[in-house]
Design goal:
- The chain has about 525 residues and is of the alpha+beta class.
- It has a domain at about 1-245: Nucleotidyltransferase, domain 5 (2-Layer Sandwich).
- About 40% of the residues lie in helices and about 20% in strands.
- It is globular, with a radius of gyration of 23 Å.
Length: about 525
């Protein structure tokens, strides 16, 4: 038997998944990712320890390789989170922990970047929003606070590239990971010399960017000993997690919209060329290079399932440790049943899903959530249904903005993630948008995308389309109900008025600090 290995470096878990060449999971294992706060003087600072990242990955890989003794692993590729990096010296020793995306220490560097380079120019060249955890800001923080360490640094490795280095000793990055740094030019797909010069960042610290799916090396003996991988196993460049998720779902082709649904909802579409206009920048999206050859991605993200968890915890819904991503648990099954009994429009209740601010297509981190239309007959099912409808109105806002600002027209929505087990949410998404929603029968779509890249890099698959034809597993489709769609067309027009109407009130309302009596 022949296999492909996908490694996923996530904020929650360090995961190894072994797939057959048909995309089916053969074995998987994960180890918790440990976010640390080691500096007593700055307890809010957050880091990942390189030893824990590598040892956790090695432990996960060893577990899956031991499960298929006798089979041949044709290649391995790594995916996961972006931005976080580690400095290593010429001997390959790490010199400082990964500064986690949770860490607030780079607020001053973000302000510097916005003043000296600016949000508009940054997007026009790199497709980035300037967030405090972008890679370049960590490098500037090191310049200012740890210059001695930076002077010893040979390479700054993004977290996936660090795992590749530990596997095969080679330093490289792919276009999608380079896109997260603030230092990559999307039009030329090279490092931006102008930004490097203005920020004072040494180009030699950065790995050469290459297309995802490029064979960069082979597992060396030290890595083989700790992981159980055979020495000489090909190591292929993977890429950013949501981009990898596009490969087994078909969302590398324009016209297919990928909805990665969980605590956050990431809406992803493929582009043939980068669209880097001020209008798109104001939507709060990212335009990055894709892991698919000759493609770009546009991604808009908003908080989603976290609000359902909040509703269950805080407004009288049954308490349980179960997650809203699984409707089979008794508490969530009852809630879904109650919401299903509420009519279209939730008996007049609307929900503005800005409880963590708004990021796309309305870029306003100061906005807040709201229920509107409450009466003394409003029930728990009305509130829960209003939450789902509000999240899907927000989703419709994003895909309409994609169409207006980017010319993206979608004829199919493919949804992956835990909440796909919630049939009410999925059917309502189809009814609100008027587009067929498909939930494929795929396990572990993101590491499968990495495994596909390993297959492309080793010749198992000719290209992305060939891989997709081998691994895709159709699942359940939710078709819009014409009557429900007509109702939601009218209700959405009312939803669109919520944020503009409430915006002035929100801006004038200061939070009240409760004091002891």
């Amino acid at each position: 038997m022949s296999y492909l290995l996908g490694i996923d470096v996530g904020s929650t878990n360090l995961k190894a998944v072994l797939f057959g060449t048909d995309g089916r999971v053969v074995a998987k294992r994960d180890v918790a990712t440990e976010c640390c706060h080691p500096d007593p003087a700055h307890p809010e600072w957050a880091v990942w320890q390189p030893a824990q990242i590598w040892e956790g990955i090695a432990q996960s890989v060893r577990a899956v390789t031991s499960a298929v003794a006798g089979g041949e692993i044709l290649g391995v590729a790594v995916t996961g989170m972006g931005m976080d990096g580690v400095p290593i010296d010429k001997a390959g020793n790490w010199l400082y922990p990964f500064i986690s995306w949770h860490c607030p220490r780079t607020a001053a560097q973000q302000a510097w970047w916005l003043e000296h380079i600016g949000a508009d120019e940054q997007f026009a060249r790199g497709g980035n929003q300037v967030w405090p955890f972008n890679t370049a800001l960590r490098l500037r923080w090191m310049q200012e606070h740890e210059p001695a360490i930076l002077s010893k640094t040979h390479k700054w490795l993004l977290i996936e590239d660090f795992v590749n280095f530990m596997l095969c000793g080679e330093t490289a990055t792919d276009y999608s990971m380079a896109s997260t740094t603030l230092l990559f030019d999307q039009r030329t797909r090279t490092w931006n010399d102008d930004f490097l010069q203005r920020s004072g960042i040494d180009r030699s610290l950065l790995c050469d960017p290459l297309p995802a799916g490029t064979l960069i090396g082979r597992v060396h003996q030290a890595a083989a000993s700790i992981t159980g991988l055979k020495k000489g196993t090909p190591v292929v460049l993977g890429g950013h997690d949501y981009c990898c998720g596009c490969l087994p779902t078909g969302a590398f082709e324009p016209g297919v919209l990928l909805d990665v649904l969980g605590t956050w909802e990431m809406v992803v579409s493929a582009l043939s060329q980068p669209v880097l206009t001020p209008e798109v920048q104001r939507m709060g999206v990212l335009v990055d290079s894709h892991v698919a050859r000759d493609r770009y991605t546009v991604m808009g993200a908003t908080v989603a399932a976290d609000m359902l968890e909040w509703s269950k915890r805080e407004i009288g819904l049954p308490s349980s440790s179960s997650s809203c991503v699984d409707e089979s648990t008794s508490e969530w099954a009852r809630l879904i049943d109650l919401a299903s009994q509420s009519p279209i429009g939730s008996n007049g209740v609307f929900f503005l899903p800005h409880m963590s601010g708004s990021f796309c297509p309305v870029l306003d981190p100061t906005s807040t959530g709201a229920f509107v239309g409450l009466r003394n007959i409003t029930g728990r099912g009305d509130l829960f249904r209003a939450l789902i409808e509000g999240l899907n109105y927000q989703f419709l806002e994003i895909i309409r903005a994609f169409g207006q600002g980017l010319g993206v027209r979608s004829d199919k929505i493919v949804v992956i993630g835990g909440p796909t087990k919630n049939p009410l949410w999925m059917q309502n998404k189809a009814d609100v948008t008027g587009i067929v929603v498909e939930v494929p029968a795929l396990e572990e779509a993101v590491p499968l995308g990495a495994a596909i890249l390993a297959g492309i890099g080793t010749g198992v698959f000719r290209d992305e389309q060939d891989a997709f034809s081998h691994v895709y597993q159709p699942g359940k489709s939710y078709v819009p109900d014409p009557q429900a769609q007509a109702h939601y067309h009218e209700l959405y027009a009312r939803y669109e008025q919520l944020y503009p109407t409430l915006k002035t009130f929100i801006q004038k309302t200061e939070p009240v600090t409760q004091t002891a009596l």
